[in-house]
Design a protein that fits this description.
This protein has 66 residues and is α/β, with parallel strands linked by helices. It has one domain. It has a 3-stranded parallel beta sheet with strand order 1-2-3, covered by helices on one side. The radius of gyration is 14 Å and the shape is elongated. The termini are far apart.
Length: 66
Amino acid sequence: MENILVVGASTRPVAASLNSAGFNVYSADYFGCEDLLPSVKEYRSILEYKPHESTDFFLINLLIKV
């Protein structure tokens, strides 16, 4: 199997397809949602996501712009 790195804002769809095709998938994305985990060997994300908790990132940005 070949290793491949997927980089983007939301990499889950591409990572899932590549995983199905037999690649060892590594990902660097913005969100890092839990549904990415079955498709990748390892991932890094920008947001500090914790299950069942909000990152408050969008709320904070919305309040700053108001």
